[in-house]
């Protein structure tokens, strides 16, 4: 089960991703916006990020207009490593090297075809660990110093 969330700028992309996940049989919980009406992206980001940080969901997908604002907000939650991606290489390596637990994308940046490819590689790629775990631990150390 993964978590999904979007503001109005990412609503249509989120709906396309839901259709893709339905076709693949991947379960999700949609934190909204459920209608496409305007909602401030930090509100959705905080709800989804809190749920991931609490261990309710292993991973999440967030969408706003650019993917940037919603990723910035999600990354304020301790334990969240949200990567805003619009290319395949980044979506792959942010799992492999950064153990990202949230993928953010911009509904005004990427089309649904590319977005679904990014979702797939994000969900299917395992964290490599090793030397990269030390770097994740250093990110955690920064959080602990705040
Ligand atoms: C909303 O218009 C827009 O600012 C938002 O979706 C996002 O792009 C912010 O980063």
How is this structure best described in words?
The chain has a five-stranded parallel sheet, sandwiched between helices. 49% of the residues lie in helices and 14% in strands. Strand 1, helix 1 (11-24) and strand 2 (28-30) form a beta-alpha-beta unit. The chain starts with a strand and ends with a helix. It has helices spanning 11-24, 41-53, 68-74, 88-96, 112-124, 131-145; strands at 2-6, 28-30, 60-64, 82-84, 102-106. The model has no long low-confidence stretch (mean pLDDT 98). It has 146 residues and is α/β, with parallel strands linked by helices. The chain is globular, with a radius of gyration of 14 Å. The protein has a single domain (2-145), classed as Ribose 5-phosphate Isomerase B, Chain: A (3-Layer(aba) Sandwich). Helix 1 packs across helix 5, helix 2 (41-53) packs across helix 3 (68-74) and helix 4 runs parallel beside helix 5. D-ribose is lined by residues 7, 9, 41, 64-66, 68-69.
């Amino acid at each position: 089960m993964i978590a999904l969330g979007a503001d109005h700028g990412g609503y249509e992309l989120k709906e396309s991703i839901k259709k893709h996940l339905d076709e693949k049989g991947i379960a999700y919980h949609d934190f909204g916006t459920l209608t496409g009406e305007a909602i401030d992206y930090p509100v959705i980001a905080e709800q989804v990020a809190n749920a991931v940080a609490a261990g309710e969901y292993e991973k999440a997908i967030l969408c706003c207009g650019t993917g940037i604002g919603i990723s910035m907000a999600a990354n304020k939650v301790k334990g969240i490593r949200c990567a805003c991606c619009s290319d395949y290489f980044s979506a792959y390596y942010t799992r492999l090297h950064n153990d990202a637990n949230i993928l953010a994308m911009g509904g005004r940046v990427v089309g649904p075809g590319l977005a679904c490819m990014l979702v797939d590689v994000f969900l299917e790629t395992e964290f490599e660990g090793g030397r990269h775990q030390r770097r994740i631990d250093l990110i955690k150390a920064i959080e602990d110093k705040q």
